[in-house]
Amino acid sequence: MESNKQHCLENGGNIEKTIRNHRVQAMDPLGSVIVETGKCIFSFFFTSIAIFIKLQHNTGRLRKEFKKLEDRKNGIEEDVRLAETEGKCSTEQVKG
To the nearest whole number, what is the mean pLDDT of the chain? Predict the structure, then answer.
């Protein structure tokens, strides 16, 4: 207690200023923890949202590619059926 009084007297007798300085020093570690925790949480959520948006985009592109492949497959099957009915190719050559 005596050292606090001496410290206060050395700072011009301003008790409020001394108390405020001690509070600020005590809050620095707590503030740092809060800021770092906030950064981690923000980073986690931002990254998660970005990944989710990218996943939706990639899923949409994949569906379009599947649709193109399915249309192409159906077109080829239709061409084969048409060729078989016209007698242009044998079934063994195409399906074998």
Answer: 79
